[in-house]
Amino acid sequence: MMKLRKLMFVLPNLFTVTSIFCGFYAITLCSGEAGPVQLYQAALAIFFAMFFDGFDGRVARLTKTQSDFGVQLDSLADVISFGAAPGLLVYKWALAPLGFAGLFISFAFAACGALRLARFNVLAARNPHGGGGRFFVGLPIPIAAGMLVSVIISHHAAAGGAPLREGAAVPVAVAVAGLALLMVSTVRYRTFKDARPNRRSALVFMLMVLGGVVIATQFHPAWVLVACCGAYLALGLVESAVHVRSHLVARKVAPGAVAVAAVIDEDEDEEDAEDDAGPGNDGPAYL
């Protein structure tokens, strides 16, 4: 029985190590004179790394094998699979023509991802029993990486494997820099852990399906994944803007609202810290 228990502790870490392998494989594909096919395969490898990263924490919670070791291993895995690998991939795919500027922006993506994970570890240490919350603090690094690889995969499918056209490096650089800043920002993104089957969630799901059908028929089915990632990014920005605006309005309404808003801000900061330091072997599914 004890041996079986020890083997169960290894299981979630195997998922994490497999995620590292996918990220390392993507890096090897991007090395040297990588062509469109190799870059497409590297994007697929990172996509599979997202799959394994999404299941390691769930497996740990299911088998009740959560550990601090798993939290640290998952963060290190994410730096490789969703920081270094996507940074090198987007440099080879689009940013190389920009020279040092492109190299620096690619590095900034990986560095901001590492900072994002370091902040998560600090919050996890402060709230070891917190979790199950509604928001992430900053854009989770797997979703930032997923946005990049979804664009590369979609472009490869829509363009028939043709390389990226000239002149696209600058827009891609702006997008990569924006994702890097979102990771280290305090913009709150929903975890959807509190989502329940009801009329509202069914309506949102139907709207997403309808939007996917429109994009697939009017443009290309490959761009549906990009649209989903973009919608999640926009949702966090809009909700954060509304949140800030509501607090500014509350402070202008009455002098006493300042004190109330300060208390609310403090409570929500504590809640967000708990949200970002979820339980489990590897914390939340997305760090």
Automatic annotation (TrEMBL):
PROSITE patterns recorded: CDP_ALCOHOL_P_TRANSF
Any GO molecular function: CDP-diacylglycerol-serine O-phosphatidyltransferase activity
Catalysed reactions, semicolon-separated: a CDP-1,2-diacyl-sn-glycerol + L-serine = a 1,2-diacyl-sn-glycero-3-phospho-L-serine + CMP + H(+)
Membrane topology of the entry: Multi-pass membrane protein
Location of region: Disordered: 266-287
EC identifiers of the protein: 2.7.8.8
First-level EC class: transferase
Parts of the chain that traverse the membrane: 7-27, 100-123, 135-156, 168-189, 201-217, 223-242
Protein's name according to its UniProt entry: CDP-diacylglycerol--serine O-phosphatidyltransferase
